[in-house]
Amino acid sequence: MKDFEDAVTSAVAESEKLEIIITRNLRDFAVSPVPAMLPVDFLSIL
Q1: What are the extents of the domains in the chain?
Q2: DSSP label of 17
Q3: What is the pLDDT of residues 4-46, one digit of tens each?
Q4: What distance in Å separates the CA atoms of residue 10 and residue 37, rounded to the nearest whole number?
Q5: Burial class, 46, CB count within 10 angstroms (exposed 0-12 / middle 13-18 / buried 19+)
Q6: Are 7 and 30 in contact (CB under 8 A)?
Q7: What is d(CA 5, CA 44) in angstroms, rounded to the nearest whole number?
Q8: Is 38 left (phi over 0), alpha (psi -120 to 50) or beta?
Q9: 41 touches 21 (CB < 8 A)
């Protein structure tokens, strides 16, 4: 990952075994082992 903060977010999400990362920036999380989702999409599945 190019962005340090995104890499930290991804690493923490993976280490904590989270199911998804909620973000408005899907492109930066394309290579994350934890899938990313837009906030509006997340709210639609609640």
Answers
A1: 4-45
A2: T
A3: 999 999 999 999 999 999 999 999 999 999 999 999 999 999 9
A4: 13
A5: exposed
A6: no
A7: 27
A8: beta
A9: no
CA separation (Å) from 19 to 38, 43, 44, 45, 46? 14, 15, 16, 14, 14
State the residue for tokens 């995104």.
6
> What per-residue confidence (pLDDT) applies to 20?
98
Tell me phi and psi for residue 36, to 5 degrees.
-105, 150
pLDDT band with cut points at 50, 70 and 90 for residue 1: confident
Q: How far apart are CA 11 and CA 4, in angstroms?
A: 10
